[in-house]
């Protein structure tokens, strides 16, 4: 049995910062779950027939519900990837200042994306989405380069 301990060269300050902001992302994600469910109830838009019996409504589409659902799906497609790649990035011993900036920008871009898509219904969401993709791409390239 190997008794060596795994050493992760992550600065404590960065790890604590990462954990805080990832928790914010997870909380945002949980709020989106609630928002989708509540919008289905509020607009009486059941997901399936058995839910329709409870709501006394037919299964149908509704723009507000669909927007919330698509924003939630977008979170599912993007947030887990960021959580993983940003943790791997912490293993590259990055600078504290730039790492904090990158994480803050990503989290804020996700929040703004959701707000502009579900509330404002504005195309300004597109740069917010692109910013998140650029950050994930940058982190991925840095991790690949560091560990190659």
Automatic annotation (TrEMBL):
Gene3D superfamilies membership: Membrane associated eicosanoid/glutathione metabolism-like domain
Catalytic activity: RX + glutathione = an S-substituted glutathione + a halide anion + H(+)
Record localization: Endoplasmic reticulum membrane; Mitochondrion outer membrane
One of the record's GO molecular function terms: glutathione transferase activity
GO cellular component labels: endoplasmic reticulum membrane; mitochondrial outer membrane
Alphabetical list of InterPro entries matching this protein: MAPEG-like_dom_sf (IPR023352), Membr-assoc_MAPEG (IPR001129), MGST1-like (IPR040162)
Transmembrane regions: 20-43, 79-96, 127-147
Domain of life: Eukaryota
Main location: endoplasmic reticulum
EC class name: transferase
Keywords: Acetylation, Endoplasmic reticulum, Membrane, Mitochondrion, Mitochondrion outer membrane, Transferase, Transmembrane, Transmembrane helix
E.C. number: 2.5.1.18
Membrane disposition: Multi-pass membrane protein
KW Transmembrane helix (keyword) present: yes
Family: Belongs to the MAPEG family.
PANTHER family: MICROSOMAL GLUTATHIONE S-TRANSFERASE 1 (PTHR10689)
Subunit structure: Homotrimer; The trimer binds only one molecule of glutathione.
Function: Conjugation of reduced glutathione to a wide number of exogenous and endogenous hydrophobic electrophiles.
Name of the featured protein: Microsomal glutathione S-transferase 1
Gene: LOC114337377
């Amino acid at each position: 049995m190997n008794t060596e301990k795994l050493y992760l060269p992550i600065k404590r300050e960065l790890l604590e910062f990462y954990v805080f902001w990832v928790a914010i992302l997870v909380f945002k994600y949980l709020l989106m779950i609630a928002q989708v469910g509540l919008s289905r109830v509020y607009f009486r838009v059941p997901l399936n027939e058995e839910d329709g019996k409870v709501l006394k409504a037919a299964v149908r589409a509704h723009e507000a519900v669909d927007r919330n659902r698509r924003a939630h799906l977008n979170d599912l497609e993007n947030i887990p990837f960021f959580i993983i790649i940003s943790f791997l990035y912490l293993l590259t011993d990055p600078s504290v200042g730039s790492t904090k900036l990158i994480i803050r920008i990503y989290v804020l871009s996700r929040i703004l994306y959701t707000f502009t898509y579900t509330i404002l219904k504005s195309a300004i969401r597109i740069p917010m989405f692109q910013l998140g993709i650029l950050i994930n791409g940058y982190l991925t390239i840095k991790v690949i380069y560091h560990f190659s």
